[in-house]
């Protein structure tokens, strides 16, 4: 099998290395920790819904790193389980529903149009600034962060990938502070204010960490998805595409290039048989979202997950992605890729973090 934790680079014209030997593949992390990767749909959906597979990093064995703090230390949607998670979910869901986000549609379009308008008339790299700044600009407005924090948030998101742990740690801390600022000094009419009202027993810092989770995840995933989406959209053409056709294109690109190729970690609470594979208590488990969704027989794609931990920001992500296509279709009819889509380079950093395009060079306007 191909180890999913190995950093790699490929052209989009080259086949994507696939995991083999399913439905549940036992492999090891670079440090030697044994983990299990689910590569078929039925056991994947079981892992994502069965309460015997928990999210709490407190259950992680040594060797599984780059995790959030345990839920007891930092309560979040991505680490809580059971009734605690259900309560958080009830607080988030109405604030991030399609209906709740509809009033933001015009503002999201204005942000996308302004950022594209600011790019030069020649050949530009959309992964240079747009894919980082646009999702942050949107999510900061939706959560109701105080004005003037976008540049700081962009710098923090870029610094989080620094090889220097001190720099990366400081960047995470700054983004968490932005989440807390949305609660304590925000506009009062966004998701942060809604969560503050729905969870009165939590401290401002605890609610701020929930907001940080939305900002961090919203930027990380949409940033990666934007490159692939724009590349495929400009390659196939946007002229005359209806809203339904744009939605279909977004869904298809997310299926083929999910921003998170693997689920977040699950840990077996007890010994359990999964797809014929005996797992010990404490077993770390990932779901191979990209591999499963690539199969034509798959049911509903797993791009945004499945079950109680289905992505809370799915509606916002779809809104952002579709809006960029609308702006390109309506405002930049001459936009073209600078080269063939098959020549684009995908960089995978290794581990469960998603791949992204190394660059996306585009001519937004005709040469003068």
Automatic annotation (TrEMBL):
InterPro entries: Cyt_P450, Cyt_P450_B, Cyt_P450_CS, Cyt_P450_sf
Superkingdom in the source lineage: Bacteria
Protein family membership: Belongs to the cytochrome P450 family.
PANTHER family documented for this protein: CYTOCHROME P450 YJIB-RELATED, P450, PUTATIVE (EUROFUNG)-RELATED
Protein name: Cytochrome P450
